[in-house]
Design goal:
α29 packs antiparallel against α30. This protein is about 50% helix and about 5% strand.
Amino acid sequence: MSKALRFLAVSMALLALAACSSISKGLESSWSVSAGEPGTLADAPPLIRAMRFDDWDRAATLIARGVGAGERILIPVDSSPVEIAAGEGRLELVKALVEAGWIGEAEGEIAMMRAAQAGKAAIVEYLIGKGYRAGVSLETYRYGMATKSPAAYELFLRVPHPKFSINGYANSVFTEGNPTPGTLLSNIAIIGATPLIEPALGAGAKLETKAFEYLGYQGVRPLWLAVAAGRTETALALLAAGAVPDATDKINKYTPLMVACITGNLTAAERLVAAGADVNAKSATKYLAGASFNESRQVLSVSIADLKQRTPLILAAENGRPELVRLLLASGADPLFRNDEGWSAMDAARLYMDPVSAGMLLAAGVEENPLITAICAGNEKTVRTLLPSLAEYAGTKKHPVYPFQLAVRWYSVTGSKAVIDALLEAKDKLSGYDIERALRIARSEDEELFLYLYAKGLALNTPTYDSGYEILRALARRGDAAGFKAAWKTASPDLDAGQRNRLLSAAVTAGSVELARFMLDGGADANAYWFQDRLSLLGKAAATGSLELTKLLADNGAEINPKLSKIGWVVYPFISPLMAAAETGNAPIVRYLLGKGASVNEIGFEGRSALAYAVLSGDVARASALLDAGADVNVRMSPLVPGSITTKLNTGETPLMLAAKADSVAMLSLLLERKADFRFTDWIGDDALLIAYRSGKREAERALTAAMGSRYP
């Protein structure tokens, strides 16, 4: 594989890159630092630096002097000089780079697609004229699909490389981080490039090609993808071209019509129905997700996924799509169908509070217990007359929906506590399962209502649910010490150590010193921790900004420097209490923890120091306290990939770079005064000044330029 292809493959995966070099002097000296490796301005790629500063005259001069061949930086887009020039419409620089003989087949293709994406037609035509083609490799194809640009996609039809296969790369549709991008027609469907459908089919694209995976759905076809992505015009064009209207995904067995019912795409649904889509199609119920054989125990383990069988009508009601319910009923959908769990479209409409759909289903002949109808209408008088029918829901038989559950759920629609009160007066007739469902709904959706039910004396303590504990958690989260202590008297004997510790955590998070002291005196553990919790209890206290609460935890034995998680061993807090104080606490808490021996230069699991969190907070007082205690002003950091707990990026960022991104002149002044080194660069060769420039942080840019004297010191 060529250097350019190898670079692109690594860049898209955000991995390490082989070293590149060029010839120059001074700042234009040999660029010997590997891409992805922090360095200094002496190591920065000079041509890319000039281009990233939009200094086009300097870039032209450097190219003319032979400076910049082979330069790369580790970012997915605009990673090379020719790609940057193409994206910015700098035809003269693209020509200079090509004519210098620096641009290979793959690099030229990428530049061509970048220009197409940016609407730089002259550059596209120039590169085509120079013989560059689309689809030389998987890596360049992946780049093209990642542009999500119809103009870039069109190049694969207009000037395909001999190696390109229009039905190749079917393993998956491109999503961020996915290694394989899927077929061209699949991607056309996703971005809604309708004008490209006919030429793609004319070039041999298969209308029913399957994408291995898209957003977790496997074996999906272009029509399915277009509907899922909300590309109605494209979906209609695919239908007109002969796409099968009922082709499902592999596992869930969702049809395009079902997807339209989920997303609320009425136009697509109408055309699908007109094209013969089955309005009574049924999705899967269970799926063999995996099987394994334990050799030592001689046991076969089978994993079954419960997929909850649905029809288009059930999905429309479940997702609050009355316009689609109307369409489906008019098109012959069966309103009486119940799935293998007894679930119907009416149950879905009731549970998901869709009165319009419920009304249409009743008009279509669905029978419903009058008590349920009255509850969802908020009709207290009728509810009272129908209370004897609660007997229908007693016993152990499971029902799709329950009266009290719906009264609580529909409270947000009806606003009727009178209906709830009427049912509470007959609570002895309510099934335990109904009460549990209602309490869980109130607890998660309306805490005020949850506390109202508690005040009305509703309680449930079963092996699966303890309302007393949940009430205590709700009161602790509110910092309601008086209410908490009153509830504690009846709930405390049944609480285990884990529950007590969670109540302590809730009290600390609420910033309640009184409740935290109450729980600590009651035996809760100041060092209790829960898997993948970002903060320890002391960290939570510090984060509230309460010095008194922080001292209380520390005085009760909370660790000042607890163990922190590491890559591959994510079982401890992510950041230290000092880092939490630096992030959202205050300077007195920072100084207190430092006085208690907090490690000032520890790097947390998230890859940053306490000083970095203070810089990101913009609080100069916190940062000063840390610097006074010896915090490393030039610490190099490797932050976690956002959303990941398994991968860090060796960006080499420094506190000064973070201050530049934040556009904080006061923080920059403090850091520079404390000898922050502005010559440091991150893994792509950007220093704090270039970071400020690229981020549009003009105040920071002016402050750093004044400190450095020049962009090219």
